[in-house]
Amino acid sequence: MRRAGTFLLLTVIVLLLLPLLSLGWTTLSRLRPPQPRLLVLDDGRRILAAELDRDLEDRREGTRRVLQADGSVGFLGSATVSAMTVPEAWFVRRDDGPPVMGRLVGLATGAGDTLRGEAAETALREMPERIREDKTRMAREVRSAAPGAAFGRAMRQWELLRVADDRALAFLEDLDGVRRPVRLSAIRESWKASSSALGPWLAAPIRAWTLFLEDPDPWSGGGLFPVVSATLATVFLSGLLGGIPAILAALRISERTSPGRGARWIRRGSAWFAAVPGVVWGTIGAGVLVGGAGDRLDRLFGDHAWRNGGVLWGAVTLGALSAPTTLSAALRAIDRTPRLAREIARSCGATRWQVLRLVVLPQASRGLAGAWVSGLARAAGETAPLLMVGAARSVGGMSTESVHWFPRLSGGFLHLGVLACDPPWPALEAELGHPLAFLSLSLLAALCVALELVATRLLRQGPRRSA
Amino acid sequence: MPRSARIAEAFAGAILRSGGWVAPLVLFFSAGWLAWQAASGRGEDWGRVFGWFAGSAVLGVAGICLALPPALAGALLSRRIPMATFARIASAMPLSVPAFMILRRLGPMVSQAWGVPAQHPAWAVVALGWGLAMPLWIAFADALERQTVREWVDGALALGANPQRILWTLSLPAALPSMGAALMRAVARASGETMAVLLVSGNFSSSWGGADGASSVGVALALDLPEATGGGGLWTDLLRGAVLLSLWTMTLHGLALRLEPVDSEGASE
Lengths: 467, 269
Known about the structure:
CATH topology of the largest domain in chain B: MetI-like fold
Radius of gyration of chain B: 23 Å
Structural class of chain A: alpha+beta
CATH superfamily of the largest domain in chain A: MetI-like
Oligomer: heterodimer
Largest interface: A-B, 89 and 87 residues
CATH architecture of the largest domain in chain A: Orthogonal Bundle
Order of helices and strands of chain A: HEEHEEEEEEHHEEEHHHHHHHHHHH
CATH superfamily of the largest domain in chain B: MetI-like
Structural class of chain B: mainly alpha
Helix content of chain A: 55-70%
Number of helices of chain B: 11
Radius of gyration of chain A: 29 Å
Order of helices and strands of chain B: HHHHHHHHHHH
Shape of chain B: globular
Number of domains of chain B: 2
Number of strands of chain A: 11
Distance between the termini of chain A: 48 Å
C-alpha cells in the first residue's frame, strides 16, 4: 500500500515536471544540426534533403516536409522508400541566403588557388571565421584612418580584401550535378553529415553555443547573447531600482521601536501590492513612463528614444512590481531577529544606527539577501509587462542598428520571454521547429529556477547565529 | 561617540530616511494614478470590462480546480515531498513554460488525435493547473508540517491513534486555514496570469468572457493597450479592467492574510 502511494506520488511529480523535462529535451533535439540524407522515393526519384519535423498540417495531409539542397522547403507527397546518410554531404548555413547542402567539390581561396579533398574541407572549417575577422579589422582601420594618404591606403587595402572576398568561394554539388557557389565570409556554420546516430546529439550543445554568441542575421536568426544581456540587465537593474529601495524601506520601518501609522500602512500595503498582477504594473509603466515621462523627455531633448520604451522603463516597471515582494520578505527577515537583543542594545545606549549595524544587519543579512533575490526571481518570471514598455518583437528589424552586445537604456529592447512566446526569427527558423524560441525559453526558465532556488535557500536559513 | 562615528551615523540615517520612503511612495503613487485614470476617463462599455474580468476570475478558479486534486492528494499522502529538489524546481518554473509546451507539442498532438482545436481558452486552464499544482502541493505540505503540534501527535500516538486518524483529526484541522490561504493566493496568481493565457487561448471568444477576442483582463491589456489612445474610451475601459483585476487579487490576498495564523516568531509590532 505504502509502495503504491510512493509510486503514485513519484508519477505525479514526474507529470508536473513534464513541461520542464519536455522543454529541455525538445530544445536539445531541435538544436541538432539538420542531417543531409539521400531520400529514395517510391516514384524512383532520389533527392538530397534534410527531413524536418512533421507538423499538424503535414500529419493531416500525409505529407512530409524536407529542406532541399538549395535551401527551399519541399513537400513530399509520396512515401520515402529509404533514407540513408551521405557521408560526404555538407550542410552550410550562411547569412546572405538560405542554407545549402551538397558534396564539397572545390574551394577557391581568393588568392587564385583551388583546393580539393581534405584541404578544401579544412579550409571550409577554418577560413570563414578568418576572413570575417580580417574584414572587421580592415573596416575598423578604414574608419580610424586619418583623412588623406592614410585613408586612401586603407581604402585600397579594403578594395583588395573585398575582391578577394568575392573570389573566396566553396562549391557544393547536389545529386543532380547542380553546383552552387557559397561565399566563404557569409558562412556561419558548416558540418558534414554524421554517420553515427549520436553525432547530431553531441553537436547540439556546440550549436547552441554558436547560436548564442554569433551576431543576428536576417537569414538564420542567431545572436541570443544581446537578448540574454538585455534580459539580465533589465532584471538586475530592476533589483537596483526596486529591490534596494524596498530593503531600505524595510530597515527604515524596523528601526523604530514603536511603529507609527505610516509604517503600519506600508507593512500592510506591501503584502497587498505583492498581489497585483504583473500586467497591471505593465499598464502603469506604459501610462506613466512610456506615455508620460518618455514623451516629455523626448520633447525636451527633441529625440524619439524614450517614448518607445526601453531597458530603463522595463527595469523601473519590474522594480515597482517586485518591490512589494522584496519589502514584505525583508520585513519578515528583520522580524525574525530577536526583539530582545535590539531592546537591550538600545537600553545600553546604542544609537539607532548602531543597533541596525551591530544587531539587526548581522542577523538579518541572509534574509535580506534572500528578499532581494526573491524580488529578482519575480521580475525574471514576468514577461507580459515588458510587452507594454518597449520589449521588441522583432530581431530582424533591430539587427542592423539597435542590437548591441550590451543594451542601451532607451529604445526597443530584446527579452528572452517575449522572443520565445512570439518568435520573430525568419521563416526558415519556423520550418526547423523554432530551435531559438525553445533555447530562449529554456534559458529564461533556468534563470527563474536558479533565482527562486537561491531565494528559497537564503530565506529558509533564517537569522545567522551570533558567536 | 567619536566624531567619525557621528558623521557615519548621520550619513547612514540620511540615506535610510530618504531612501526608505522611495519604494512606498512609488507604490502608493502607482495605485493612485491607476485609480484616478480609471475614474476620470469616460469609458465605452462596462459590459466588456466585466466580460474581461469574468474571464480572468473563471480562468483562475478553473485552473486551480485542476491543480487542486494532485496537490491535495500529494500533501495528504505524504508529509514529505519525494524528490524535494525537483519539486521545488517544478514549482519555480514560469507559467509560460507549460503554456509553451502545450502550444508547440501537446496541443497539436491532441488536436491530431481527437480533432479538438490546438488553441482554445480551455488549454489556458490546463496550463494554469499544470503550472500551479506543484507550488500548491508544496504550500499544502508546508502548512501540514508547520501547523501540526508535535506534542499532540506524540500524545495521540501514545494513546493508540493511527497515522490516518492523526491526519484527519489533528493535522488537517490545524492546517486548514493555511491551506485555504495558499489556495486563495494561487487563485489570485492564476487570475492575473497573462502570457500563458495569451499563448494558448487562441485569441477567440470564449463562452464565459462575453467579449470578442481574448477574454481575460491580462490578455486584453497586453493586446489592446498599445493600440488604445490615452484617455480614450478603450483606454479607460482597459484601466477599469486593471483596477477590477487588482482589487480581486488584493481581496484574495487580504483574505489569505486573515485566514493564515500569525507566525509567532514573525510578529514584532
